[in-house]
Specification:
The chain is mostly helical. It has two domains: about 55 residues, Homeodomain-like (Arc Repressor Mutant, subunit A), CATH 1.10.10; about 150 residues, Tetracycline Repressor, domain 2 (Orthogonal Bundle). The longest helix has 28 residues.
């Protein structure tokens, strides 16, 4: 059942825009990008097409905002999970695990990502959103890695930190994709344990150094 939208007579400008983005995502998840028309989105949000034009110039801008919401949402979930930990080791561990477990590994999110991904090569705005999210993700990883190596008393150069972050991003992306597409093939915690073991090997750590912080 689709959750009820906020009352548009009381919602703030930001809340109205957010609800329209959520309605856009709902329609894309159900009908794909081509099938998600402005009329369908307006109906889902319980508003008129005229009100949509008050917030967006057209469907293209709505799709761009929706793509940004999906990408930002996944990164924010992982960052929030890491911030709830105390030590730098635990923060890095939680960030990695969060990226390969629900709610980040969610079939609906994957279908939305797949619907948007083809636009990156043909649309400059989509490419810019992708680039911005990628750099934000790398930045979060670099910050976690720097704190982790500082905590264990081993210096990490900025060059090595960036190299590790790029490699970890690729590792996480692959495990996220497999964990979302074929979640039923993995036992409970199997993917998370595999992710941590792989990260330990990549960072040249002792086996169990990160997994012990879970």
């Amino acid at each position: 059942m689709t959750p009820a939208r906020r009352s548009y007579t009381r919602a703030s400008e930001a809340e109205r825009r957010e609800d329209l983005i959520l309605a856009t995502l709902d329609c894309i998840a159900e009908s794909g990008i081509q099938g998600a028309t402005v009329r369908q989105i307006a109906t889902r949000a319980g508003v008129t097409a005229g009100l949509i034009r008050h917030y967006f110039t057209g469907k293209d801008q709505m799709l761009e905002a929706a793509y940004k919401a999906v990408m930002d949402g996944m990164t924010e979930i992982a960052i929030k999970a890491s911030e709830e930990a105390g030590s730098a080791r635990a923060r890095l561990s939680r960030f990695i695990v969060a990226n390969v477990t629900p709610p980040v590994t969610d079939p609906r999110t994957l279908s939305l990502w797949a619907a948007f991904i083809s636009h990156i090569q043909t649309d400059q705005t989509f490419a810019a959103i992708h680039r911005e999210n990628y750099l934000a993700f790398l930045g979060a990883l670099e910050k976690l890695l720097t704190a982790f190596f500082d905590e264990r008393g081993t210096a990490l150069s900025s060059k090595d930190c960036r190299s590790f972050a790029i490699s970890l991003n690729a590792l996480i992306d692959g495990l996220w994709l497999e964990g979302t597409l074929t979640a039923d093939l993995f036992a409970e915690n199997e993917l998370a344990d595999s992710a941590l073991a792989s990260v330990e090997a990549l960072l040249r750590l002792k086996p169990g150094e990160l997994s012990a912080a879970r």
